[in-house]
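Field reference: "sequence" (input) and "structure" (output). Example, Pentapeptide repeat-containing protein:
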Amino acid sequence: GANLRGANLPDLTFVILGEKYFISITNGEYVRAGCQNHTVEEWRKYSKQEIAEMDGRKALKFYPRLLDIIDFYIGKGERPDWLTSKEYADEVTE
């Protein structure tokens, strides 16, 4: 990994290691998870289909964790209703 000691990074910029995907948060506005880079607002509103198209079942299983990470670093925010559906729960526990 890169040595960021002494780097002049904007406020609310984080690099998170040890997750299923490389995650970075830039200026508290953009979140990169793996090769996907979107605004915090976009991440919070994606449909189940949009998340699945990013990386299939692996992305669907990781999405709630990503939102937890965003909530921790940026502040609690909204989540799509489909995350609490029985259909989603059944799909990611199969």
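The radius of gyration is 14 Å.
The CA atoms of residues 30 and 38 lie 6 Å apart.
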